[in-house]
Amino acid sequence: xxxxLRLILIxxxxxxxxxxxxxxxxxxxxEKTGRPLPQVSVSAGRVSVVTNDDGAFLLxxxxxxxxxxxxxxxxxxxxxxxxxxxxxxxxxxLQPTVIQLREIVVRTGNPREVVEIAIRKIPDNYSRKPELLxxxxxxxxxxxxxxxxxxxGVEDMYKTSYTRGIGRDRVAIVKGRRLLSQKQGDTLGLKVxxxxxxxxxxxVVKNEEILLNQEELNAYSYSWGVPEYINDRQQLVVLMxxxxxxxxxxxxxxxxxxxxxxxxxxxxLSLDMSDKDKATRTMLVRKPMGVRFKPRELSCVxxxxxxxxxxxxxxxxxxxxxxxxxxxxxxxxxxxxTCEMAVTDHESDDVKPIVSRNSFDSRDAYYDKVEYFxxxxxxxxxxxxxxxxxxxxxxxxxxxxxxxx
Length: 405
Hints:
- The structure is a single chain.
- By secondary structure, the chain is mostly beta strands.
- The chain starts with 21 loop residues before the first strand and ends with a helix.
- The chain is globular.
- It is built from seven helices and 19 strands.
- Strands 8, 11, 12, 13, 14, 15, 16, 17 and 18 form a nine-stranded antiparallel sheet that branches.
């Protein structure tokens, strides 16, 4: 459960292999400001990707689609028609959604009651049969402002019906690689405990132990936030704040609930840092003797996408920020760990469970399960989250350093 998650970074981004025949790529920007938009969903049928921090995306398909659909929180969903031979270096502008004042008061009453109604409707809104999700996963670690670790992977994620818990849900690594800084000064290593399994553990809607159970819900106060739009559908926004302390750290939460279907479409959580000891117990598994760990942030975003009459998890991003210093040293060093997952495809017909011996264990570190990589065509036909410009430079630098050694 989230309150027991350990150590830095958790972010899922699996993927599916294709016989590459067509690509669609470009940049998504804000129509008014021109700034690139990260974490935008770009889809063609069942296949989808998200933009990186630079707003860039690359979608790999079997055939050139007639159009792609682009959607993002707070923006109007846009269907972009494609011309043959002009499917790359696209520049797509999204228009911010304007919420009229009269639309703000969409519901009255207790926001917690709406949350509980949405919980009761989970069996109606989410899959009632097993599914196999294809996803791309990436985890990174930064010391101050430079990358010291990058790991990526393609994975299969088997999920049972949402009427059941996560006990039989499994993740299997299809393909993976890692890069680690060779600098001796960067050897305070970060390992993510169970990173690729986080899309199972952090599926808040399915794993009720995290948040959506009576014991946890009773620990929070609720209020209405300003409504938003996702995929041109109005979302009720419920804000959650810790009401009284528990033996573990609580969260500051923001729940987006579809106004018509009453389905959870986005959940944002940020660990309460008011008690550093509790926050440390949530974030940290272990550390070297003599190192002091100072938590700064643990935040998580989980997106759900409605398609084919079913709402399913589509994207997850975790950010861990903390400082470490050695006793008797005056200055501390800042670290940031990030995990990201994007579901790229799914199968719902006659899917088979992932057997335990082939699954990734939540007690394992992804770092220990994949090998060093150098092949620039490693992902070739897989849909992935494109590296941002800064990450791409970091990867080239780490490869260059490795080759010199």
